[in-house]
Amino acid sequence: MANYKDLIAWQKAMDLVEAIYRITSHLPADERFGLTAQLRRAAVGVPCNIAEGFGRYGRADYLRFLDMALGSINEVETQLLISRRLGFLTEVQIVSPIDSINELQRIIKGLIRSLRGITKDNIRAT
Fold it and tell me: Quick one: which of 107, 97, 75 has its CA closest to 24?
């Protein structure tokens, strides 16, 4: 693969960033420096970490950045759930982003397994 922009994980992460920016526009104004900023920062961190890791020379560095991307995705999901619990967002508003998050988690975990050389057969054998 020639460029990080060719990665499905990066493309889906960019889509998630757009969705998070749209959804956070519905948060209360007094959350501008709270949940809004945190959600946006965590979402932006996902494609940035994927891109930065891709640009590293070693597999270990790439894996570390993919782990960070996965952590950021978990942050975004948690912050969306917090926003729903606090009544800032509805279940309907977060369904699509949560679905995207779940898909992106699977994609990144698959990429991590691939880079580590772990297959389903290897997992069953251990």
Answer: 97
* Per-residue pLDDT tens over the stretch 1-38: 679 999 999 999 999 999 999 999 999 999 998 999 99
- The CATH H-level superfamily of 4-125 is 23S rRNA-intervening sequence (1.20.1440.60)
The residues near 35 (Cβ < 8 Å, ≥ 6 apart) are 24, 27, 79, 82, 83, 88
| Tokens found for residue 73 | 């995705």
